[in-house]
Amino acid sequence: VRIDALLDTTSAQALHFAWLSLALEPASEYGDRVYAGIQPFAPGEEAAAQARAALVSGVAESLDAARLDAVRDALRGSPDAAGAIARASMGDVLADAHLFELQRFCDAIVRVDALLDGVPGIDKISNEAVAITARALESGRTGKFAFYLADSFDGVLAASRTRLSRAQAELDAARGRTAQRIGSILNRDDLSSDEFILMRAEIDGDLPAGVRVLREAPTYYLCALEFDEAALAALERRDAAANDVASAEEGVRGELSAVVRSHAAQLDRAAQHLGEIDVLIAAARFAQLHRCRVADIVTEPVLTFSQGRYLPLEAELELQGRAFTPIDVELHDVAVLTGPNMGGKSVCLRTCGFVALCVAFGLPVPAESARAGLFDEIAWLGIGGEDEELGGLLSSFAKEVVRLRDVLERNAPRLFVLIDEFARTTTPHEGKALLVALIARLRERGARGMVATHLSGVAREANARHFAVRGLRGIPARPATGDLQEALAALAASMDYTIGEIKGEEGSGADAIALAGLLGLDEDLIAGAHRALRR
Amino acid sequence: MRVGKAIFELARAAGARSLFVVGIGKNVGKTVTMRAVYEAASETGARVGLTSIGRDGEAVDAGDAQPKPRLFLRPETVIATARGVLPASPASEILALSRLQTAAGEVVFARVLGSAFYELVGPPTASGIRETVDLLETLGDVTIVDGAIDRVAALAGGDDAIVVACGASAANTMQEAVDGVAALVSRLRVAAYDPALPALHLDGALTPTRAAALIAQHEERQVVVRDPTQIALTGKGAARALETLRIRCVRPLRVIAATVASIGRERTFEPRTFLKAVAEATGLPVFDVYAGTHAA
């Protein structure tokens, strides 16, 4: 998947694009090729994005999970025949492994077509070339999946193999007689292999005729059996018969390769189509597995959704037996988000970015409903967005500033920006001033997005809409065991992660001291912090 | 005596479905041993699967252009080898293709349907070999692998058996060859640990430095490694550590025999003396595939 224009590396990392990419991974190499060329939809392509999301959703609704998995199994088990088709089209004679791949390719198409029969919006993959190729190869089918250049392909091949089999038996018999004769003289029953040792002390007189000495050592000879006249004649006949078989086999391969060559273009189209189906099925499985819905993809640069979920975190929470709290967001400008520590501000930003990403790739979104536009760039700034390439010479603040500069200089016509506690490492007074100015700049440019901060008064001074995480319903007691996981579970139970719009006064504080106590800082230190706060 | 038959029967008696032939160096008779066991197994009517770690059965050594023992295979043998070395003729039945890569292309599983010389090029990694052997076991009755000592980890904990091949090519003197194979066999035959007794589980290999530290501390607990390939000790250091420490492993290996090749490219050893010395040093049944002799 190509994301270079939509997401830079840092933003991709912050939004866990790798997770999404893995979740959408196709099952076959045909799909891999198509997937590698996929690009996000750009502004102006809303209708195409909408159609794609509707198709993915339609497939997800038409097929149950078992059927989707069966299609993926059929695709996964199909070796890649693209190389074989390309070789045949260039005039190469295909090897048996290529013919095996082609047979499995045809089998996979038949299987996938059967599994997807009647699904709205999906055309049959099979075409005339696939049918002709499958028929041509059918004589080679052995067992369920194996392939052999069988005698039934050609009468000449069958006859030459019969001659070879006879000639090999004659050679084996001739060599066997030699081994038996010499073995009986030497009292050895193991002279079937090429080389053997004879101890000098055990030989009475000369070595028997037919034994060739390869090397002499003080106490033994390294020997081999010679070919006598009868064996040499049998060897000659065997080699001639083997040459005939090789020639007949190559003739059959040549004929089969010619069939593939003359239908290469149509076979290529079928391979491409198979890859597109693979990518579609992977997307449908993603949509079904994560209960995604088709967003209303509009021409305006907005992002609104209800009950949205950030899937990478939801999956992580599920592993721990916890549930993600879905959130509602309505963005048609640059808004400010505040809330307590660990209240989910960053997750809210990431949910927005993730939903926008799904829309950009024409995917159903992880929300109950959504209305969204397409963006030229989705950018992440702040926590989790530090660019490693900038190295250790820059401070945290400097790195953030350089990233902001880069995003602004790229000047994407439609920018969706997610800013997580920008300027948190400088003085609150100047940090706030920077944020207010940044929001003003982003609005001038028509950007959309959300700015999460602990600095109070930013929304009021920037005249921006203000959302807040609803936060703690009460401060949970510190667990008696001091166990961190227990503390986190208590915190999660007390936290209301939903988002609401604030009118008038700014939201309450960050609950930082209470959280520090819950997370295990000693009681004296916490009491000191409370005293300092009161002063 | 029929050495191949004797080794095959030892493997069967041990209940092994796969036999790994590993050598203490190059040109120590691995392929000759494999061929002897293969021929004996084929004669019983067993469907034999063959593969290699690295390259085997080629006419000349790719390293020094010297002639190598070749593999003449009979119909119904199943092989796992690289696509690039599977002969076009006689045609083989293609059973499966894998995505395991070798220097000569992906590994293909094929049934031999015409007698001919074949070259085996198998996957170079322990996990690749494990995957290959597992599939070969579903396609045949017995699997023989021409192995490499540093990939034996693939066998740890499995039902496989190991034959160690040693020869004159791998050492300057007979004593050096005997010491080398004895140390290797001691290492590979490290016993499974006893969970009921105190144990120090090592994360990673038992290196000379680590072993020296444990000896200096008079460590009395079982020193447990994952499998015998994690004992990274050789020569006298290995012998001392194995004598002094109670080295054990989680997944033991089963070494059932050794073979000797007294003929090397640069030197030869007296066959009977070499055979007897290896048998005494390892405590294993030892076979000379070339001379058709045995010592225990």
Give an account of the 3D structure:
The complex is a heterodimer of chains A (535) and B (296). The radius of gyration of chain A is 36 Å and the shape is elongated. In chain A, strand 1 and strand 2 (146-147) form a beta hairpin. Chain A is an alpha/beta fold. Chain A has a 6-stranded mixed sheet, sandwiched between helices. Chain A has helices spanning 9-14, 17-23, 29-36, 46-62, 65-76, 82-89, 96-115, 128-137, 155-186, 229-262, 264-289, 311-319, 345-360, 396-410, 428-444, 458-462, 484-494, 512-518, 523-534; strands at 141-142, 146-147, 195-199, 211-216, 220-225, 296-297, 303-308, 327-331, 334-338, 369-372, 377-382, 415-420, 448-452, 466-472, 495-502. Chain A contains 19 helices and 15 strands. With 296 residues, chain B is α/β, with parallel strands linked by helices. Chain B is 29% helix and 27% strand. Chain B has 7 helices and 17 strands. In chain B, the strands form 4 sheets. In chain B, strands 6-7-5-2-10-1-11-15-16-17 form a 10-stranded mixed sheet, with helices on both faces. Chain B has a 3-stranded parallel sheet with strand order 12-13-14, covered by helices on one side. Chain B has a two-stranded antiparallel ribbon with strand order 3-9. In chain B, helix 4 packs across helix 6 (235-244), helix 4 packs parallel to helix 7 (271-282) and helix 5 runs parallel beside helix 6 (235-244). The longest helix of chain B is centred in the middle third of the chain and has 15 residues, at 174-188. The two termini of chain B are 14 Å apart. Classes of the chains: A alpha/beta (535), B alpha/beta (296). At the A-B interface, helix 7, strand 2, helix 9, strand 3 and helix 10 of A face helix 2 and strand 6 of B.
